[in-house]
Amino acid sequence: xxxxxxxxxxxxxxxSVQLALLSGVMVQWLADPEQAPTGAEILEGLRSLVDLFxxxxxxxxxxEAEG
Length: 67
What we know:
The protein is 67% helix and 0% strand. The radius of gyration is 15 Å and the shape is extended. The mean pLDDT is 89. It is mainly alpha-helical.
């Protein structure tokens, strides 16, 4: 998707998550490269998060307010 097609808030949110993931994985790799997650593990974790959020929406589970 072209970045220009996204709202500014969405671009910022996606960039923030990407930077947090990059920083976190980098720190883990520097501290213990043999135990750092692989790309496949990170993707599996992200997919699991999406599944959990979608399930919460279907069941009407309360979501935390934006801070």
